[in-house]
Write a structure and sequence with these properties.
heterodimer, A: mainly alpha, two-stranded antiparallel sheet, about 30% helix, flat, B: mainly beta, 3 helices, globular
């Protein structure tokens, strides 16, 4: 039983912020200059007074390691390598001079140190911990994850492998000829949207990504469209009179001046309704 | 606070530390920027402390960057793996960042050739800005409450695995997941304070919020055993779900006699039981086949209400004075669903030669769902006094479908340095659906809405592509994807005449066809010299949706196009310096014929944006590194159609820069010092979302 909610959500965690903000904002410009000058001076001093032979490599990579070939991986990871030919990512493999670079190590980084250390810590790239490996090819997805509304993959709260299987079968978990259905991947975390509902929204059968961008969007709730086109892209019908939008026999023109179809009282139950066939609530 | 600043200042003087952190784009930076070699230390603990000062819309900052505006401190990362003996391993991982509300504790104890025990706890917080919309003509924006919303998502688990040689692998797992808190909703309330003349002066921009309280208990048992060339598995899953959520809407705030609230409570509890069986037989490296069967049954119960009143979560008042014409709600909803699902699959993976791979597969699903609900609708008559009347309702539906999916994938690698592939997937589905909505009277039930649906649903998906490696370091990959999804509905029973005047739902849609084309090409180039890598990618996506209503012609209801151009460069000009940059330019638009019909009331939706990021890492010395990241984002899709409707296009410009200084004090002590500046400007909200934020953070890592 939920506790009774106050009429206004409670404001919390303000005191420390307010003090720091007041202190900081009063000295912001001076502090900025001081911090910038200090940092620059520190960098110059350290850089000029030291000679370094160290190597820095951009993630995801392992400095000092070389390609060992996928055969080396089979020794310990046979359960993964034996089924890899069924994976969508096996489409990347080819026979030829370049093969060494496009096996396991094209995603996990050069593995010589991993092999020589017997699987030592931090000697191999683990894409589960950082999506940078996946972004090497899926640049478009990287762009989506940086948008204002996105799943928290960059923040480490989710991993690409939560929704994708890189090693076996279809890269998309669920759907197609997989045992799990298309939307099951989403329902792992968004169980309420599963329903079941007395009156379902057929769009769910089409797939969650009919209305949501799974990686990220410029729109709230990762919607593919933020305005009424989200609904009209399927519910627009042939119009028989100009200057009006008739849907299912009713003129919706006036309602659309208020904004989206799913706001206050019209079609709020966007995933399905237990009571209203028009998904009113 | 003085203590905090003193600590920060001392760390600056000491040129302290660096470890994994968050760059200006919110990305977790990797520790692999440091030259990692196999280490003698297998355990580590990283302590961190920091704070963020925000001027402007702090909730928006928190939502955008998924970090709290105040201080945060604690254990960023803990890994402990003591050496016990060659047969026993123990691993402990943890994180406890107060303020950020990010916690993890996990333990794994394994005994070789016996089994393992795992247990853990995880919780993290996501922040939301509880704002509503913005109406530019009269600078209308509602601040109804503190907008600092947050949802905590957590889980606690226990897993026991038995791994005795020659015995079946047995795994038992229990997990409790939960989600708790408040977040904003896009279903905004209405206001008449827009200053728009005429009767269409209402706009829905008033903020609303959702109250979330969800729990899920999941028990699973899995058995796996290999008998010669065949692996068999059996799995059982029981899941119990309790959801108690609500939507809270404030309508017409500040308008006398119209200012009112409603809360809709949606409660659902569900029990899910699933059993699955599979076998995989490997007849050698050339051929393997697998079959699987799964049965799932789900039983749910619902409850809830939707009540108008003087505040959020009001008590029902039949004579509530501010009730308006369409303020319908419902009381005491009761009901539930019974779902049964059967799925069977068959897969082959065949390699007739070293150059060919053929993967045919098949899936069959039978699904039956029966649902009903009883409720009392609170209705306000369309004319006369605004007095609520009660209408007992019963709604029910019966739905079943059979779906068959076949797919075939073929790959060929016989041409040196090439991989060609093609895949086709076909799905045929037959849907039978019955839906009824009754008004219950004393001894009779009158049918309000009835619909029987017979659906023919067919999907075709095709993929063709090639990967080419013309020389070491060069890869050209291209792929074309096509999807055709056709829905055809017949309605043998329909209570609404679909011709003439009046509402024609529910049985109105007859055809619904989706057609998707997607093409992409990617070129990766690593020149032999220069330690530089270029990756260029272009994606083109086009989708059309054709819709036909009963007694009407087919119309193209949407035309969606997207062009996505991306470039990434990674360069090591010096051994001690790396530079990484990425640039993305996206044009994405959804066109519907609505704007041709009613002008600016419904604009075509644009989701155009471009963003870029540059990261540079530099070894200042043998023990000190500097990493700097800059991120830029711009979306300019705002078109002010306030005179006709609510403007939704985004208009935002963001800059973010972070600098991280890391230093190795001793072989096993490292530290970081990080500063970040975040800036957001959004004219689409009249500046209400603007913020400038400064992040200071430091961490110290001890390896042992």
């Amino acid at each position: 039983m939920r506790s009774q909610r106050s009429a206004v959500p409670v404001k919390i965690r303000r005191v420390w912020h307010s003090r720091l903000t007041r202190w900081f904002h009063g000295r912001r410009e001076k502090l900025g200059w001081a911090a910038g000058a200090g940092a620059a001076l520190t960098v110059i001093l350290i850089s000029c007074t030291s000679t370094s032979t160290r190597t820095l490599v951009a993630p995801p990579s392992i400095a000092g390691a070389e390609f060992a070939g996928s055969e080396s991986c089979e020794t310990c990871h046979e359960a993964i390598t034996r089924d890899f030919h069924t994976a969508t990512h096996a489409r990347l493999k080819a026979q030829g001079d370049s093969e060494k670079e496009i096996g396991c190590e094209s995603c996990h980084g050069p593995g010589s140190l991993h092999v020589s250390s017997g699987g030592g810590a931090r000697t191999i790239v683990n894409p589960r911990k950082s999506p940078e490996t996946c972004f090497q090819c899926h640049l478009d997805v990287r762009a989506q994850f940086t948008l204002p509304h996105h799943h928290p993959v960059l923040e480490g709260k989710m991993s690409c492998t939560d929704c994708h299987d890189p090693h076996k079968g279809s890269a998309m978990k669920g759907g197609g000829t997989e045992v799990a259905g298309t939307n099951e991947t989403c329902f792992q975390c968004h169980s309420v949207q599963r329903g079941p509902f007395v009156f379902e929204h057929e769009a769910l059968r089409q797939g969650c990504n009919t209305c949501h961008q799974p990686h990220g969007s410029v729109n709230q709730r990762m919607l593919t469209e933020r305005n009424a086109t989200l609904c009209l892209k399927c519910h627009f019908q042939q119009q028989t009179a100009s200057g009006a939008i008739v849907i299912g026999g009713r003129d919706h023109t006036g309602s659309l001046t208020r904004g989206t179809c799913w706001s206050a009282g019209c079609h709020e139950a966007v995933h399905g309704s237990q009571i209203s066939s028009s998904l009113r609530f | 606070m003085k203590q905090l600043l003193a600590i920060a200042a001392s760390l600056i003087v000491l040129q302290l530390p660096v470890s994994a952190g968050v760059d200006s784009n919110g990305t977790k930076t990797s520790e692999t920027t440091e030259e990692d070699t196999p280490e003698e230390y297998t355990n580590w603990i990283t302590l961190g402390i920091g704070g963020v000062s925000v001027e402007g819309d702090a909730p928006q900052f928190q939502h955008r960057h998924r970090m709290n505006e105040d201080s945060f401190w604690g254990i960023e990362e803990l890994h402990w793996e003591p050496s016990i003996n060659k047969d026993v391993t123990l691993k402990l991982d943890g994180r406890a960042m107060a303020g950020a509300e990010d916690y993890l504790a996990s333990i794994e104890l394994a005994y070789r050739n016996v089994g393992y025990i795992k247990a853990g706890y995880r919780k993290f917080r996501s922040w939301y800005d509880g704002h509503g919309g913005y109406f530019p003509p009269n600078d209308l924006f509602f601040e109804l409450y503190d907008n600092e919303f947050a949802i905590d998502r957590g889980s606690i688990w226990f897993e026991l695995g038995l791994r005795l040689p020659k015995w079946p692998e047995i795994t038992f797992r229990y997990e409790r997941q939960w989600r708790d808190g408040q977040k904003d909703s896009t279903s905004w309330g209405d206001t008449g304070l827009t200053g728009v003349p005429g009767s269409n002066n209402l706009r829905n921009i008033v903020p609303t919020f959702l109250d979330i309280d969800e729990t899920r208990d999941i028990f699973t048992i899995d058995l796996k055993h290999t008998i010669t060339k065949t692996e068999v598995g059996l799995g059982l899953r029981f899941e119990k779900q309790e959801n108690d959520n609500s939507r809270n809407v404030h309508r017409r705030p500040g308008e006398p006699s119209q200012d009112r609230y409603f809360t809709q409570n949606d409660r659902i509890s569900a029990d899910l039981f699933s059993v699955h069986f599979y076998q995989t037989t490997r007849l050698g490296p050339e051929l393997q086949f697998s079959t699987a069967y799964m049965f799932t049954t789900l039983e749910s119960e619902i409850g809830g209400d939707r009540i108008y009143g003087i505040s959020y979560e009001p008590v029902f008042d039949p004579v509530y004075a501010r009730r308006q014409r369409r303020d319908e709600g419902f009381l005491n909803i009761l009901g539930g669903s019974q779902l049964d699902q059967h799925v069977a699959t068959l897969n082959f993976a065949w390699r007739p030669s070293k150059d060919w791979v053929v993967i045919p597969s098949f899936r069959y699903e039978h699904n039956e769902l029966d649902s009903f609900s009883d409720s009392i609708e609170t209705v306000v008559p369309p004319t006369g006094p605004l007095v609520v009347t009660f209408e007992p309702l019963e709604a029910l539906s019966e739905r079943s479908f059979d779906a068959i999916t076949e797919s075939l994938e073929v790959r060929y690698t016989g041409l040196k340095n090439w991989n060609f592939y093609a895949k086709g997937e076909w799905m045929q589905e037959q849907l039978d659906q019955l839906e009824r909505d009754f008004e219950l009277e004393e001894e009779t039930a009158s049918l309000l809405i009835g619909r029987d649906t017979e659906g023919d649903i067919n999907t075709q998906k095709y993929v063709v592509g090639a990967n080419w490696y013309p020389q070491p370091g060069v890869n050209v990959a291209t792929q074309y994807y096509k999807k055709i999804h056709e829905n055809h509905y017949d309605h043998p029973f329909d209570t609404t005449p679909n011709i003439g005047v009046g509402d024609r739902y529910p049985a109105f849609l007859r055809d619904h066809d989706f057609n998707v084309d997607d093409f992409n090409v990617r070129v990766t180039w690593r020149p032999k010299k220069g330690n530089i890598t270029f990756v260029t990618r272009y994606d083109f996506q086009m989708a059309t949706i054709d819709t036909r209503g009963d007694f009407l012609s087919t119309v193209e209801s949407a035309d969606i196009t997207a062009h996505i151009l991306s470039e990434s460069i990674t360069w090591n000009p010096l051994p001690r310096l790396f530079v990484q940059g990425a640039l993305h330019y996206v044009r994405n638009q959804t066109d519907t014929p609505a704007d041709q019909q009613v002008g600016a009331i419904v604009q075509d939706m644009k989701n155009n944006y471009w963003n870029g990021t540059v990261t540079a890492g530099y070894a200042l010395g043998d023990k000190t590194d500097l990493q700097v990241n800059y991120f830029y984002y711009r979306a300019d899709n705002f078109e002010d159609n306030s005179a006709s409707s609510v403007p939704y296009g985004s208009d935002a410009e963001e800059h973010a820069i972070t600098a991280t200084l890391s230093h190795e004090f001793t072989k096993n002590i490292r530290g970081t010092l990080r500063y970040g500046f975040f800036n957001n400007r959004s004219d689409a909200y009249g500046g209400r979302h603007n913020y400038d934020a400064h992040l200071f953070a430091t961490s110290l890592q001890y390896r042992y």
